[in-house]
Recover the amino acids of this structure.
């Protein structure tokens, strides 16, 4: 893995593809155990979670469904603080076991604003699974049920995560070089 430069920023290798895949498989095995006999509905939050959701879902052996919602609060490498919904939720959540899939929890604002829209619909259960969590960035505490990696408060890129729309196709995760 070598450095990647996008626009004005340089990113250095952080989490290799093999480790990401290993953690996602472990997470899928745990969910397969925890939801044995149930038919969960996964709700993946676009755009960032599309690779995580696809790889995780391939290792789910339950009778499960998946749907997608698009939320965004980031512009460039800074959170704007406004969560915009641009594809709505069309599934019926009543009496369903819901697992929300998110690429990364940073301040927690996205899920803080979105989760009430789910709990309103009377699901049987609601859990959160994330690829990455930045505990030091927390502004809105969220109960995270499944997490692949807890990471420092640095901007990350790759494996679905972008810098102004680019870098999502990288198989590995990179972090902003020289940031503290
Ligand atoms: P909040 O602050 O609402 O942020 O928890 C969650 C959303 O912000 C995006 N995000 C990032 N995107 N690198 C990215 O490419 C990052 O380091 C980063 N931190 C937050 C992401 O879309 C997430 O859904
Ligand atoms: Mg996201």
């Amino acid at each position: 893995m070598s450095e990647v430069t996008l626009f004005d920023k340089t990113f250095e290798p952080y989490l290799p593809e093999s480790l990401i895949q290993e953690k996602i498989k472990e997470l899928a095995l745990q969910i397969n155990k925890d939801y044995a006999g149930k038919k969960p509905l996964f709700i993946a939050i676009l755009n960032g979670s599309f690779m995580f959701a696809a790889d995780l879902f391939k290792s789910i052996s339950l009778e499960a469904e998946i749907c997608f919602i698009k939320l965004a609060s980031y512009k460039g490498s800074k959170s704007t603080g406004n969560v915009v919904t641009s594809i709505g939720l069309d599934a019926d959540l009543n009496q369903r076991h819901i697992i929300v899939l998110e690429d990364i929890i940073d301040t927690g604002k996205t899920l803080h604003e979105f989760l009430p829209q789910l709990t309103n619909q009377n699901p049987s259960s609601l859990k959160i699974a994330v690829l990455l969590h930045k505990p030091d960035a927390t502004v809105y505490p969220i109960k995270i049920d499944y997490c692949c990696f807890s990471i420092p408060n640095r901007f990350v890129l790759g494996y679905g995560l972008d810098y102004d729309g680019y870098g999502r196709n990288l198989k590995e995760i990179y972090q902003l070089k020289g940031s503290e």
